[in-house]
Amino acid sequence: MTFFIKPWQGLQNYVKSDLLPFLADLRLAISLFLLIALFSISGTVLEQGEPLSFYQENYPESPALFGFLTWKVIWLLGLNEVYRTGWFLGLLILFGTSLTACTFTRQLPALKAARSWTFYDRPRQFQKLAFSAELQGIDLTTVQQHLSSHGFKLFNQDNSLYGRKGLAGRIGPIVVHGSMLIILAGSIVGSLVGFKAQEMVPDGSTFQIHNIIDAGPWAKTDTDTIQKDWAVHVNRFWIDYSPTGRIDQFYSDLSIINDQGDELARKTIHVNEPLRYGGLTFYQADWSISEIRLRLNNSPIFQIPMASLSQQLGAQLWGTWVPIKPDMSDGISLITKDLQGTLMIYGSDGLPLGTTRVGMATAINDSLTLNILDLVGSTGLQIKSDPGIPLVYLGFGLLMLGVIMSYVSHSQVWVLAAGDRLYFGGRTNRAQVSFERELLAVLADLQAQPQPDASLSPETPSPETPSPETPAVSALDPSSK
């Protein structure tokens, strides 16, 4: 039995004397925080979740960016998905452990000490305080009344008095530590079970999420799990343009519908104004032109897809080819740069034939008239699932509250009545000057108390000798001036 007890006691001693002091060390916490901040910045600067070919093309070995940053370094260290790497999650866990150790070994004991009260029973104890004074002719009850009016919570014991206020200032650091732990927990949850998807959906279409581009190792990304019995319908997509022709804002009117087609929710989204439903957030992220609707002479309406030409021409353009002969041996090309309705027409020889607009009939040749009916846009949606976001929001809310609480000064005062003298002193953990001014105001109020008529005294004291009935400050610590 002793064989098992001694190793266990040795482990306990190691945890208490070595491990906990190491984890609670402020220098360790600051170092971990700076490392987390540094790698978080790298995750913002470096593109995340791209394929290997992307990094090989943009971060070649020669010349290496900054002399060392190549695709091999990025891929080896996992900087392509830094927030999900084991070492980054390990840093978060270690930082959280350090905060927890500091909370239990320092902050909670400090709060426990602040909540308890101690009484001074010897005058020399007041000499150690930042502010102290020696009074005459004032009783303990009068002091108690004045301190109570200044918000101090008071405790009595015989001829001693202890008061405190601002206990929230001691609770604040604990709230800050707890809020940071909640934020870390939310970040870890989001990185493990969250996912990101992108969908390009034509105006008027209904879709469910299929194009998952990034997901945590524990994320459930099958459609039946994500959306179950509902889908998203794009009621309308449109773009507002400025007078100069630049894009001002683009919008998507989205409806959440069930299997029977009933509308469960609806919202018009735009940049920085997403739709949230079923634990998913739908952001307006991009747009495109999906197809064109046109008629040749009196033909039926043709609905022809349009393709992006950005890679070929180096600009944001969309184009399509329209046959103008039944055997498709000849045709024209239509190219546009936006949804404002202007299109450029090119012949089969590549020469421009002019321009046209939506709703306008244009003669291509003597026997053919082109009538553009509509340009159909596609909304680019980014869909995110991050179950850790509520925890992160809660953590940041508590963090702001804890920071505000931490600015509250925790002030303490002691009073001791010894014979005809009364010893008065106090200390605070911050705002020392304001605290001393407050105590000086208390002393001034005490001195302003009405005194007995001197003529009733059997013996009139000399001016150099203060009367026991007359309050006076006989000693004031220089630091309080």
UniProtKB/TrEMBL annotation:
Q: Where is the ResB-like domain?
A: 26-301, 373-439
Principal location: membrane
Q: Which InterPro entries does the record match to this protein?
A: Cyt_c_bgen_Ccs1/CcsB/ResB (IPR023494), ResB-like_domain (IPR007816)
How does the entry describe its membrane topology? Answer: Multi-pass membrane protein
Q: Where is this region: Disordered?
A: 450-481
Q: Per its UniProt record, what Pfam families does this chain match?
A: ResB
Name the GO terms of the biological process aspect: cytochrome complex assembly
Q: Listed GO cellular component terms? A: plasma membrane-derived thylakoid membrane
The subcellular location is:
Cellular thylakoid membrane; Membrane
Keywords from the UniProt entry? Cytochrome c-type biogenesis, Membrane, Thylakoid, Transmembrane, Transmembrane helix
Ranges of compositional bias, category Pro residues: 460-469
Q: Which residue spans traverse the membrane?
A: 20-41, 62-79, 85-105, 174-195, 391-408
The record's note on quaternary structure and interaction partners says: May interact with CcsA.
- Known function: Required during biogenesis of c-type cytochromes (cytochrome c6 and cytochrome f) at the step of heme attachment.
Family under the similarity heading: Belongs to the Ccs1/CcsB family.
Q: What name has this protein been given in UniProt?
A: Cytochrome c biogenesis protein CcsB
Q: Which organism is it from?
A: Prochlorothrix hollandica PCC 9006 = CALU 1027
Its encoding gene is what?
A: ccsB
